[in-house]
Write a structure and sequence with these properties.
Blueprint (H helix, E strand, L loop, with lengths): L14 H48 L4 H32 L8 E4 H18 L4 E5 L4 E4 L1 H17 L7 E8 L2 E8 L6 H4 L11 H6 L6 H11 L3 E7 L3 E9 L6
The structure holds adenosine-5'-diphosphate.
The site of adenosine-5'-diphosphate (ADP) has 22 residues, from helix 4 and helix 7.
Enzyme class: transferase
Organism: Demequina litoralis
Protein name: Sensor-like histidine kinase SenX3
């Protein structure tokens, strides 16, 4: 690619300007590349459930005289449709977050309330697997942030912990604050994540085990949404994990300090 800035008439005195343009250009090219990749991924990801729906409909057409088959495949169609809905909602969410267009609606929040809301939202899925969600409040920090986005981020982490754990194992959600940093850790004793995958799980559409993720309705977008929500709050999200032992995801935010 020829950088666009070469067409600009730049005199030696404009070294700094030139550098700024180069940087700007590199950045916009990277952004452009990333947007293009995203579009390709989105169409690929949408094709899978649409293809599955079409095949299932075909099977029903052929087996219309057998009510058992019709019922079974109609149920599968509903599951695919649910997955497709989730996928589209998450694509809209990640697009909004990435474009920076979702001007974070900042307000002063009690983080324990946000944690409770996220845990409540994940409870139905946890109950279905007899997974106990244990909340461990070591501190009750206040933070500045967008309540809905923070609930979404923490809920994603708890949903994943439930999703990738065996039935009957507990998931702990602990809240702490130290040195001006509030942290929420979601600790599971699930399947864990290998080193290589740990480096990539925050990427859009990346799944450590695509077949398993697909089966459980995973889209591969959850953690990239969590990462973007953390970034929009000048926070961070990190993972510690060991296959066969479990995973801990830690979401960090600055504690709101009372002006004295
Ligand atoms: P998905 O919709 O597939 O769960 P995510 O972006 O939320 O997408 O997660 C990406 C991948 O990271 C998952 O497919 C899974 O392989 C892995 N993963 C995420 N959370 C956990 C966890 N708590 N335990 C084990 N693996 C996990």
């Amino acid at each position: 690619h020829t950088p666009r800035f070469v067409h600009a008439r730049v005199t030696p005195i404009d070294d700094e300007l030139c550098l700024a343009l180069v940087n700007d250009n590199t950045e916009s090219r990277a952004a452009e590349q990333s947007r293009r990749e995203f579009a390709v991924n989105v169409s690929h990801e949408l094709k899978t459930p649409i293809g599955a729906l079409s095949l299932l409909a075909e099977t029903i057409e052929e087996a219309y005289e057998d009510p058992e088959v019709v019922r079974k495949f109609a149920k599968k169609m509903r599951k695919e449709a649910r997955r497709l809905t989730k996928l589209i909602q998450e694509i809209i969410e990640i697009t909004r977050l990435q474009s920076g267009g979702s001007v974070v609606d900042q307000e002063l929040l009690h983080l324990d309330g946000v944690v409770h809301e996220a845990v409540e939202a994940a409870k139905v899925a946890a109950d279905a697997k007899e997974i106990r969600l244990v909340t461990d409040l070591k501190a009750r920090p206040d933070v500045y942030g967008d309540r809905d986005l923070l609930v979404m981020a923490l809920r994603n982490l708890v949903d994943n912990a439930v999703q990738y754990s065996d039935a009957g194992t507990p998931v702990t959600i602990s809240l702490d604050a130290r040195d001006g940093i509030a942290s929420v850790s979601v600790i599971d004793r699930g399947i864990g994540i290998g080193d290589k995958d740990q480096e990539r799980i925050f990427e859009r559409f990346y799944r450590a085990d695509p077949a398993r993720a697909r089966d459980t309705g995973g889209t591969g977008l959850g953690l990239s949404i969590v990462k973007h929500i953390a970034l929009q709050h000048s926070g961070s999200v990190a993972v510690w994990s060991e296959p066969g032992v479990g995973s801990t995801f830690t979401f960090k935010l600055a504690v709101h300090q009372e002006a004295s």
